[in-house]
Amino acid sequence: MSGFLPGFEKKWVDECNSLISAGQHKKALDLFSSMFVTISEGFSVDLVGLLGRLDISEFDVESRENYFLLSVGVAGKCDLPDMALSSISELLQGQRSKEDAAFRQALQLEKANCYSMLGKNNAASFLYKDLASSCEDSRTIAYVYQGLSAISESEDDMSMYAQQAADKHLEAGSRFEAAKVYARLSDNYKSKCAEKALGSIDKAIDLVESERLSDREFYAALLANKAQYLYELDQASDALPVAKKSCDLRRGVSGVEVQLHTSLVLLAEIRKEIDSSDDCSDINIELHDLVECINDEEFHFRIKLLELVRQKKPLDEIDMGSIDGLNDPCARAASYVYTVFTLDQSLLEGLELLDRAKEIAMFVKDKKLLAFVLFSVGELYRRNEMFSEAIGSYEKSIVAHSYFLPSVQACISVMIDQKLWSDLEILLKRRMELIGDHPGICLTLARALFEQSKFLLAYRYFMKSGSDDEYVKRAVLECYEKMSKEEIEALPRPCATASLRSVSLDEFQAALKEFSRSISSKSRMHFWVKEKVGKGYKWAARPEEISKQLLIAFLSGRFGHGSVEILQETRAGAGFIDLYVGLPGGLKVVIELKMCGGSTYSEQYALSGVDQIVHYLGAFPTKVGFLVIFDGRNRDYGKNIIAMQGVGEMTIFSIAVDLRNTVKG
């Protein structure tokens, strides 16, 4: 908290400048390095200028390294990726980088991030993928996949890399980082599929810990998003308690007044949906008091604009001077765009407003803003079924900013709808030159080539995509049937082109649930034998071994023999873990199997598997474990089995297999 004290930054900066003036550059560097972590957001210190005053000509090797590390940190805080790249290059040439693989990989990751910030996505992709194949540290690989997700242009690629990032964060024991990835994944889904967005938000909520004040707003934001999704899915009753909790978390917290306003507005809408006679007077009073204490002119203007839009008042009733007087050019242009798509206007009226937004973007020379406005022009044309003009506007947007993803996706979508396969092929090949051949782009290009009867090229890109979709399987077969004999002979053997598809944590968990259902419906009675006296049952001999062998057989069949590594009875400290599993793509988990029920296996014994997993995980390069309980309790089946729980850095999933012998399988 010391970085927030009045005059604190000025005091140490003055001291640092005094040391530099006295020629004590090494002491100045040490002071700068120690104080850098205390600098608050919105700092007023000229960090770059202060760094530039240091004379490093007399520094030893260690001090030079510290200087360049500090330079990378300063560049990151000041959003200067070019400056960071220069310092990273110096560090990569140093002796530590040559001897310390982890240090070198951390620098390479930061270098890739800088390339991504500069829009050099091809270079960034190359570095990310090189790290993914060479690095063994789960935490580093998680950030690599996050980087790949950020620069991906297809929804499928974004989602795939994000899922892999979340899995690796969990494997590294970083539940909070995994929750943040799921939150971003939810944002990716929200405009396409509310159900998927809701599923990702639920995963984030399950993972996040709300006890710490620093996490409180993130937790509140997740709940607000979940309430919004439920509301959009016409589940207002389910949304109500979630929205209330979001408001409760935000009340009384300084700095989140605008966010609280948003949550309260949503809560009022949900309550009115449930009961149209609810005037929400209590919320309206709270909103009025809240607005009074928010000192933000642009916030007040947005409130006014939203109210006008709700009332569907014509544009000339909006104080245009308020829009033009906004400090943020993005906010001004967005106000025009927002108005176009929320009020019932003619095409000409919409284009006139968007021209105003375009003038602002060109005046301030903001390429991303210009790309957004041109994208909006394309959307307006598409809404009016003027598809050729829409494509033209999307392409202009892409020219203005090569990495403006909405325009790329919209252009691809219209070309597919209009069956403009040749144009789509040209567009996708240009994108490949820019960002590389990601699986999603390969798949879409393969379809464009297939529709043009370019079967050899289509086949190659279908295979390169790695997709196992039913459409792809049929298309690949048709390509193969329609290729000439010479083309077929020139193809690489299938085993040479096929690669093992990565298995995500979600897929593995789904497989275990499928295993549970299969055992319950087909094999439950393998675990029981009839009592010699009476009509009851007792456990079969060595049921743990039966369960283990059934699970190994299932996993091998489910993911393919040789593609999944399964180690049995692996030593972990003083004990043995039942199964240690390495999945295609590098994900690693441990599995503990427990029986429960009858007179032999108590609930306490079964649930002790959690403690065993916690003990075992300390000996393995993963923080993810699965407790599979074969539950034969007739009355208390499933009782006290927690689906997911966090213990320190470790995440443990529990799955019950129904072995109740009262229902024969």
Describe the structure.
Strands 3-4-5-6-8-7 form a 6-stranded mixed beta sheet, with helices on both faces. A two-stranded antiparallel ribbon has the order 1-2. The protein contains 32 helices and 8 strands. Mean pLDDT is 85; it is low at 1-6 and 494-499. It is globular, with a radius of gyration of 29 Å. The protein is of the alpha/beta class and 665 residues long. Among the domains are: 210-295, no CATH class; 318-490, Serine Threonine Protein Phosphatase 5, Tetratricopeptide repeat (Alpha Horseshoe); 505-658, Trna Endonuclease, Chain: A, domain 1. The protein has helices spanning 8-21, 25-36, 47-52, 61-77, 81-92, 95-99, 101-117, 121-134, 138-151, 155-171, 175-190, 194-207, 213-232, 236-250, 257-274, 281-293, 297-310, 320-324, 329-342, 347-363, 367-383, 387-400, 405-417, 421-435, 439-451, 455-465, 470-482, 485-490, 494-497, 505-523, 543-559, 603-617, and strands at residues 528-530, 537-539, 565-572, 575-582, 588-596, 624-631, 644-647, 650-658. The longest helix is centred in the middle third of the chain and has 20 residues, at 213-232. Helix content is 65%, strand content 8%.
